[in-house]
Design brief:
Elements lengths: L2 E5 L9 E7 L2 E8 L2 E6 L13 E3 L2 E3 L6 E3 L15 E2 L1 E4 L2 E5 L1
Antiparallel strand pairs: 1-10, 2-3, 3-4, 4-8, 5-6, 6-7, 9-10
Length: 101
Amino acid sequence: MKWFKVLERSSQIGEGEVMEVHAGNRKLAVSKVDGVICALDGVCAHEGGPLGKGSIKNGHIICPWHGWEFDSCSGQYLYNSAKGVESFPVEVREGGVYVGV
């Protein structure tokens, strides 16, 4: 695993927000829910929509293309536990927010 700095500081993402970031050659969706920053694969498991450009509803990232809902930290698809997207560890450090890929 390699750690990538994705944000200069944790305050760059607001509560209840999701944003698209890059970690190496991976596109990720970083979100903040209940003060916890999490990172998921940024490509929807349904048809490849950009999860980092979606929205947050009840702790889930909503894909902007077709409304698929994924738990913002585990990546589990809300309606079928066999589907989902990969989640990645996040560390908030003094020098920024890092994701392990």
